[in-house]
């Protein structure tokens, strides 16, 4: 079975959580949106749902930081996630997930590259190198003229 992985930056600490996305259906923000959590199985000690509920607040993440992995790696074998910024040599772009496909939104251009054009499905890699992400490295989104 294919593993679907997510990541999100902690709302309370300067750390990233990797694991399963939980949009809490019982507690909502004041605007009625769900509160996202990333259940980081490497950083939680539980053996039942009560234990998870007691520790859940430790795994609340910034909503804008939540990103899914397309189950591919960059050319250095680093797992890539939605909203990563990748360098392709002559251009840089942000990894995005559309309704039906993954693509790279090229920074500074109104252009996208579909993963079909840059991914090696046999090796499960893309041609580019992850150099940051939109949350920790917003300066990489700036276009210099």
TrEMBL record:
**Gene3D superfamilies referenced in this protein's UniProt entry, alphabetically:** YopX-like domains (2.30.30.290)
Secretion signal: which residues? none
> Which stretches make up the YopX protein domain?
5-142
In Swiss-Prot or TrEMBL terms, this protein is called YopX protein domain-containing protein
Protein source organism: Oceanobacillus indicireducens
Upper classification of the source organism reads: Bacteria, Bacillati, Bacillota, Bacilli, Bacillales
């Amino acid at each position: 079975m294919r593993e679907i992985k997510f990541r999100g930056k902690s709302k309370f600490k300067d750390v990233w959580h990797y694991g399963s996305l939980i949009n809490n259906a019982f507690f909502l923000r004041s605007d009625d949106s769900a509160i996202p959590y990333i259940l980081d199985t490497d950083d939680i000690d539980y053996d039942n749902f009560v234990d998870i509920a007691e520790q859940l607040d430790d795994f609340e993440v910034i909503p804008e930081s939540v990103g899914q992995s397309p189950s591919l790696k960059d050319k250095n074998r680093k797992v890539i996630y939605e909203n990563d910024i990748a360098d392709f040599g002559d251009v840089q772009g942000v990894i995005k997930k559309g309704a039906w496909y993954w693509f790279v939104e090229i920074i500074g251009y109104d252009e996208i590259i579909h993963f079909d054009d840059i991914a090696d499905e046999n090796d499960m890699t893309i041609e580019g190198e992850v150099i940051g992400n939109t949350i920790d490295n917003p300066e990489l989104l700036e276009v210099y003229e």
